[in-house]
Amino acid sequence: MSLKGSITTTGYMEWDTFVSLITRLESKDEYKFCLLISIGVFTGLRISDLLKLKYSDLLNKNTLVLKEQKTGKTRTIRLNNDIQTLVQRIYQKQNLTHPNQLIFLNRFGDKAIDKSYVNVKLKEIFSKNRIKLDGNISSHIFRKTLGRRVMELNNFSNESLVLLMELFGHSSMSITKRYLGIRQQEINDIYLSVSL
User: What residue spans of the chain are helical by DSSP H?
Assistant: First the structure.
């Protein structure tokens, strides 16, 4: 249960902020979170599915096929050139030789990092890089950033909302709008549109 007055919804990153952040993380050799944030945003996967990924799931592949943990559904995701290139480059920079290795290994190298660690580390990364968001910082930021980018590129059209509803597995457009904070933005725009 959240505390009264606390922010419980996760924000999203502006696209330029996202691009700048992953560039910075890669240049500082923070490969694990560079990939986690990038793959999360480019695929829209939930954190539970992201943490199970192996390099072999992405290296030299055009599509990622996986069974979602939450829904049990098989999902096929087209991997664009940007994410393919980034994964390949970081794999090579780390001099890895075992593509069946989990991408997001813990410091002991025996299993994947956990969700709570991801959320703590994301808050640290955003603070260190002076990134401010409307809303909380958590792993939901990946899916929300993807959703907002798709909506922006398509002028917030209903068609893009329908596609995002399907991608996110939501049962209605109103859930997707609420998830992306679009309804609140529309309400805020009404207040701003009233003038003397």
Answer: 15-27, 31-43, 47-50, 55-58, 81-93, 115-128, 140-153, 158-168, 173-180, 182-193
Name the DSSP letter for residue 76: E
Q: What are phi and psi of 8, to 5 degrees?
A: -115, -10
**What is this structure's pTM?**
0.86
**Dihedral sign (CA 134, 139, 140, 146):** positive
The answer to whether the beta carbons of residues 78 and 62 sit under 8 Å apart is yes
Report CA-CA distances (Å) from 88 to 15, 82, 113. Answer: 22, 10, 21
Tokens of 29: 């050799």
Give phi and psi for 168, each to the nearest 5: -80, -10
Q: Identify the residue whose tokens are 């398509």.
A: 154
* Amino acid in position 172: S
pLDDT digits (tens, 9 = 90+) for 33-64: 999 999 999 999 999 999 999 999 999 999 99
User: Under a CB-based contact definition with an 8 Å cutoff, are residues 100 and 114 in contact?
Assistant: no
First-to-last alpha carbon distance for the chain, in angstroms, is 42
CA distances from 103 to 18, 47, 50, 131, 186 (A): 20, 13, 9, 25, 39
Strand 74-78 and strand 63-67: pairing?
antiparallel
